[in-house]
Write a structure and sequence with these properties.
The complex is a heterodimer of chains A (264) and B (319).
Chain A (H helix, E strand, L loop, with lengths): L1 H15 L3 H27 L13 H7 L4 H12 L1 H25 L3 H5 L5 H34 L3 H5 L4 H26 L5 H8 L4 H11 L7 H25 L2 H7 L2
Helix pairs in contact in A: 1-7, 2-4, 2-5, 2-7, 5-7, 5-9, 5-10, 5-11, 7-9, 9-10, 9-12
Chain B lengths: L10 E12 L2 E12 L3 E5 L6 H8 L7 E6 L2 E2 L4 H6 L1 E4 L11 H11 L5 H11 L15 H13 L5 E5 L7 H16 L3 E5 L3 H7 L2 E6 L1 E6 L1 H9 L1 E7 L4 H9 L5 E5 L2 E6 L2 H14 L4 E7 L3 H17 L1
Parallel strand pairs in B: 3-8, 3-9, 6-7, 7-8
Antiparallel strand pairs in B: 1-2, 1-4, 4-5, 9-10, 11-13, 11-14, 12-13
Helix pairs in contact in B: 3-4, 8-11
The chains are: A mainly alpha (264), B alpha/beta (319).
Amino acid sequence: MMDKVWAVVRKEWAEVFKNRFVLFTVSFLPLLFTVIPLITLYTTGTSGEMGGVSLEDLPPGMSALCGGLDGVACAQYAIISQFFTLFMMVPVIIPITIASYSIVGEKTTNTLEPLLATPITTMELLAAKELAAAIPAILATWGSYLLYAIGARILAERPEVVAKMFDPFWLLAIFAVGPLLAIAGVCIAIMVSSRVNDPRVAEQISAIFVLPLIGLFIAQTSGVILINEKIIMWMAAGLVVVDTGLLCFATQLFQRETILTRWK
Amino acid sequence: MSDLTHTLPENMILAEGLVKTFGEVIAVDHLTFTIEAGEIFGLLGPNGAGKTTTIRMLGALIAPTAGHAQVAGFNIGSQDRDIRRCVGFLPESPGLYHALSAERNLAFYARLYEVEDVPSKVEQYLRMLNLWERRHQPVSTFSKGMRQKLAIARALLHEPRVLLLDEPTSGLDPEMARLVREFISSLKREGRAIVICTHNLDEADRLCDRIAVLKTRLLALDTPAALRRKLYGRSVVFHLKNLEPNYIQVLKTLNFVISVQTMDNKVLVTLDNPEEQNPVLVRTLVEIGAEIQFIGELRRTLEDVYLQLVKADKEEIQS
C-alpha cells in the first residue's frame, strides 16, 4: 500500500515544486515569518525601551505565563509569543497552495482519469495527496520554529527566555496544532479544488480558512486575548474534531465516480 | 500484478444488461455483448451516446446502475481492483504530467500498476514506440502524436489482457494515425481483447472485427461486413452503353433481386448472393440486348451504415 502512496507523493513533489509560485510560497513564507519577529525582537532589544519594565507593566495574564521570569525577560517573552500565531499560519497556507495546484492541475491536464484507472485505491490516493501537501508544510513549520528559537537565543538577553520556547505550550502548538492545521488546510483545498478550475481561485477561496488565525494574531498583538496553554489545548481538541469531519467529507468527495463525473 | 492462478474466461469481456444513469439521465441503457481474446471491438455512436461511460464501467472507474459485467473473469463491482490490474486504459485525452519527463511519467504508472522490473519495462516501451531518445525531456516539449504514443505505452506497461482505448488516433496526422492503427493490430495478434471508442468510421472499418453502434442503447452489433449486408444487402453496379426502360422491368421480375436503381447509364442491383446470382443477371441483361461495359460491386461505407442506423433510430423516436 505504502509503495503506491509514496510513488504518488514523490510524483506530486516532482511536479508541484517545478511551479515557481509553489516553490516561493513553501520556501519564502516560513523564512519571512521567522525573520519578522526576530527583527522586532532585535529592534526592541537594542532600543533600550525594555530597560525598566517590571511585571506590573505587563498584561495580568502575561506574568502568569512567564512563570519565574522577571519584568525585562517577561517583556521579551511577550514579544516572542506575540508572533506565535504566525507559525500557525505556515502549516495552513503551504498545504493549501500545494493541494490547490496539485488537484486543480490534475483536473486541467486531465490526469485524474488515467490515475484512477490504476489499481490504486481512492484512500491511498487521498492519503498521498494529504501527505504530499502536509509534509512540506509541517517540515517548514518545524524548521522555521527551530530557526526562530536559534535567532531568539542569539537576540534575547536571557537564556531562560528562550528556554520558555520549549515548554509544553509551544511544543503542543508546534508539534500537535501545526500538523492538525495542515490536515485541515489540505482537506479544505481538496473540497474547494473539486469545484474550481483555476489553482489561484482555489487557493484564494481556501485561504479564507487563514482568516481566523489572522484574527487571533491581531487579537493577541493588540492585547485583546492572551494565548495560553488552555487556549492551545482547546485549539488542539477542536481541530481533532474539525479534522475528523473534514476528512470524512473529503473522503466522500474523493470517490472515483464523483471525481470523474462531478468534478467540473 | 494480477492473480496468475486466475483462469482466463472464454469471453474476456461479458456485459449483460448494463445500465448507467446520472440522476434522471440515462447514459447507457441495457447493453449486452461479449468480447473474445484477440478481438478488436469498436464502439460507435454520436456524442453522448454512452461510449465513454461504457468503457469507464468496463474499466471499473464508475459503477453500473444495473446489470452485470465481467472483465477478464472478474466481476465489476466486487473485484474492481483486479479488473484495474488487468485493464489498460487510454482516455480521450492523454492525461500525462507535462512537467515530468517521459521516463518519469511511465515509471510512476509502472509503480502504480505493480510492475516488477520498472526500469526495464519502461525502457522496453519507450524503445518500442521510438521515444527512448527523448526519455529525459519533459512531456510539455512533445508533439501531440508523441504524447499519444506515450499514453498508449502507459496503457500497456503492465501487459494488460484487456485494452480500453478512447479515440486512440484522435488529432493525429495520417502517418501517425496509421502507425497507431498498426500497433493496435499487433496487440490484437498478441491475443489481447481491445475495445475502441471512435468517431473515425473508416478506422473502425479497417481495424475492428466487430462493431457496436450505440445511442444510449445498442442499435446494432456485428462485423462491419455483416452490418453492411444487413442494411443494404450487396449491390452490383452495371455500366451499360445503352439503358432502356424495359431493362429495369425485366430485372425486377427476377426473384432474387432485392431492388433495382438507375443513375445515368448505370444500373444498381441489390442481391443476397452476388457470387451465384451475378451470372444469371449478366445473362439476362445480354439476352434483352444490353451492352455491358463494366461490372463492379458497390461497397457501402461504414459511414453509410452508421448514418442509416442513427437516422432510423431518430425516426423511431419521433414516431
